[in-house]
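$ fold --in a.seq
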Amino acid sequence: MYEVFHRTWWRINPDWPDGLEPHAGRKSHMAYAATEEIAQYMCKEYNDNHKPGQLSRKAEYDHV
C-alpha cells in the first residue's frame, strides 16, 4: 500500500537569497493507493492540475 500526500519544498526566509530557504514541509495526506502505479498516477494528476506556487507544493507517495 502507498500513501499519497502533498507538501511544500521551500519556506519563506528573508535571510536567504530570493527570500526562500530549502525546507521539506509537513506531509498532508491525500489518499491511499493499492499499487505504486496508481500512486504515480494520482501524483501526476495532482501535479498536472495544481500550480506549485512560490513554495513548490507537489504531490508524492511513500510505501507504507
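$ fold --in b.seq
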Amino acid sequence: MNDAKQVSIVPHILFGMFILELIFLMVKKVSLALYGPFDLFEKLFPIIAIGLLVAVIKPRLNYKWWAALMLYLGYLMYGIAISLANQKGIKIILVQLYHELKFFPMVMLFAVARCDEIWTKRTIKVIKPLILLCILLIFFQAGAPGAYDAIFSSGGHFEPGHLGGRLVPRFVGWFWHPGQSALFFTIAAVLISVEYHKGNLRFGNSLVFLCIVFVFCAIQRLELMLLFMALMALKVQRAFNIDYRFILAVIVFAFFTWLISYLSWDKDNVWYVLENFESPRVIFLVEAVFVLFESSFWGGGWGTIGSHAAADVANVYEYNAMKDLWWVKLGQYFYDTYWPHVIGETGVPGYFLLLLSMTFMVCALERPEASLLLFLLLLTSALSSNAQSLYHLTIFGWFITLFESDPYGWRHSKSQAANHY
C-alpha cells in the first residue's frame, strides 16, 4: 500500500485506539461489569497491530529493527520449544503466545507508522481538557470523598499512599489506577515540553507543572523519579544536542542483566530479597527464580509461574505454594509482574533473547524522545506488567508515533527554540 493511503488510514486507527483507551478508563472507573465488553474489544488490538504491519505498513527497517525482530521471534520459538519439552498442552501454548504477541507488534506498529504534524496538535487538544477534568475530579474526591467513592465505586485507587510516614489518599482524576495517571502525565510532560521548546505551544511550563502535580497526587514514587529523569534528559539534550539512544539501551541491558545475575548467582541472594522486601511482586519473582533453578536455568515452559496461561489455563495457583497469599486469593496472579514469567518459564535463554530484542528496539527508534519513552516503559516493567498491558502499550505507542513522525528531527529542536525566544 502506498504512503498516501498509509497516512490517511493508519493515523486514524492508531489515534482511535489511543482515544478508546482513555474512554475505557472512565468506563472501568464507573463499573467493572460495564467494562467487560470493552475489555474484550481491547483484546483485538494486538491482532489489529499484526494486521496493519503485514497488510498496510511497508517500512524499510534498519538493521537494529531486524535484529530486534529476529531476537523476539527467537524468544517466541524458544518459549514454544521449552513448553513442548516440558509437556505443556497446546492450549497453554496458544493462550500464552497471544499474550507474548502483545509487546513487540504493538510497539513496532506505533514505531514504524507515520503521521502528519496535525496529529500532535490533536493530541495536545485531548490532553488539555483531560488536565481540566482531572483537576475537577481531584477537587471532587478531596471535597466529597463519600460521593466520589459512590459514583466511582470500582476505581482502583482506594489504597492510600505512604507519604512522609503517613497514609494519604491517592488522587487520580480521570484515571482508574494511580500508575496509569502518573505514567500518562509523565509522557504527556515530555510531549508538552518538546512542543513548547519548538514554539508550537503556549504556556508549556504551566502545563508541565500541572503534569508534575498530577504525578505527585498519584503518590507513585517510581513514576515521579522517572518523570524527573525524563525532564533532565530533555534538558541535557537541548543543552548539548546529543543523541542518548545508545546510552538508554545500555542502561536497559545492564540493569536487567544485573537483576538476573544477582538472583541466579547464589540462592542466598534470593532468600535475602525475600526476607527484606515484603511484597507479592517479590514473592512471584522469588518463586520464578526457584523454578529457574529447578529447570537447570532452561525454564519450566509457559503455564508454570507468573504468566496468563499459568493462571487462566493451568490453574497452578490452586495447588502450589502460593495458593494462600491474599494476592492470589483475589485473583491478581500476574497483574503487577512481567519478568517473573520470563525468568521462570523461559529461563536464561528466553530472558536474554527478549532483553536483547528490547535493547535493540531502544536503539532502533529514530528520535531520542521516542527511545526515552520506550526506556521508561521498560523500566516500569521491572515492578509491573506494563510491558504486556494494552493500555500502556497503546498510550506509550501513540506518543512514540508522534515523536518518530517529527519531520524536523531532534537535531533541529535547539535552533528552533532559539528562534522562538
